[in-house]
Amino acid sequence: MANIITFAQQKGGAGKTTLLTQLAAHLVTKQRIALIDLDPQKTLTGWMDERIQRTVEADMDLIESSEWRIGVDIKKAARDADVILIDCPGTADMMLGKVMRETDIVVVPAQPSAPDVWATRATVRMAMKEGADAYVVLNRVQPRGGAVEDIAAKLADEGADLLKERIGNRVAFSTAFGKGAGVSETAKSSKAAEEIAALAKAIAKKLR
Ligand SMILES: Nc1ncnc2c1ncn2[C@@H]1O[C@H](COP(=O)(O)OP(=O)(O)O)[C@@H](O)[C@H]1O
Ligand SMILES: [Mg+2]
């Protein structure tokens, strides 16, 4: 049975596609990965297009899906994959509920800002309603961002399950993204790669 991990957060720009692709690039050396792009903006598909142009063979599958095909597409992806990573648009509509019902865990990236906290609340509630475990990961954390601990406390107060692993605001992430790669490939012994490895480990634990 494939593990299904959905990246959701109704706020755009929180880091869903970035963290999903980082995780995919990190995991693909050991597991068979399938990607499902549910965002009409097709950012994940763009990343994969870059990747295919740069590598000899496509090392993961990508399905461009939609609300009415998602059930079928998950089944299709599950045939050949160990892990299915689903990228959602920055909305909280019916489709998101449907996806969450089919998902093992939901990863909710949030930047340390008040609007992200508000949006996170809605996304986490939706996951709870649909019976999926949701884990919030703080993204683009600045080295001396004073408000981060306040934000973390607020999120925890609201019942969000906050991962202790945090992702910094690092150029390496956006550089890798533009190359259809992950920092585990482009910046092997960087702090960014360490953070992604730690996040992958934390997520793997939640799947057990
Ligand atoms: N940890 C990070 N460090 C630096 N830039 C980041 C980080 N996470 C996301 N970004 C940048 O922020 C923008 C939005 O990220 P993205 O993953 O597309 O968000 P979403 O998919 O939630 O809309 C992108 O330009 C991306 O490169
Ligand atoms: Mg996105």
List keywords for this structure.
208 residues, alpha/beta, Rossmann fold, 7-stranded parallel sheet, 9 helices, 16% strand, binds adenosine-5'-diphosphate, binds magnesium ion
> According to CATH, what is the topology?
Rossmann fold
Any guess at the CATH architecture? 3-Layer(aba) Sandwich
Coarse structural class: alpha/beta
What gyration radius follows from the Cα positions, in whole Å?
A: 16 Å
CATH class: Alpha Beta
Helix content: 40-55%
Q: What letter string, H or E per element, gives the SSE order?
A: EHEHEHEHEHEHEHHH
Question: What features would you describe in this structure?
Answer:
With about 210 residues, this protein is an alpha/beta fold. It contains nine helices and seven strands; from the N terminus they run βαβαβαβαβαβαβααα. The chain has one domain: P-loop containing nucleotide triphosphate hydrolases (Rossmann fold). α1 (about 15-25) packs across α9. The mean pLDDT is about 95. Helix content is about 45%, strand content about 15%. β2, α2 (about 45-55) and β3 form a beta-alpha-beta unit. The chain has a seven-stranded parallel beta sheet, with helices on both faces. It has helices at about 15-25, 45-55, 70-80, 95-100, 115-130, 150-155, 170-180, 185, 190-205, and strands spanning about 5, 35, 60-65, 85, 105-110, 135-140, 160. The site of magnesium ion has 5 residues, from α1.
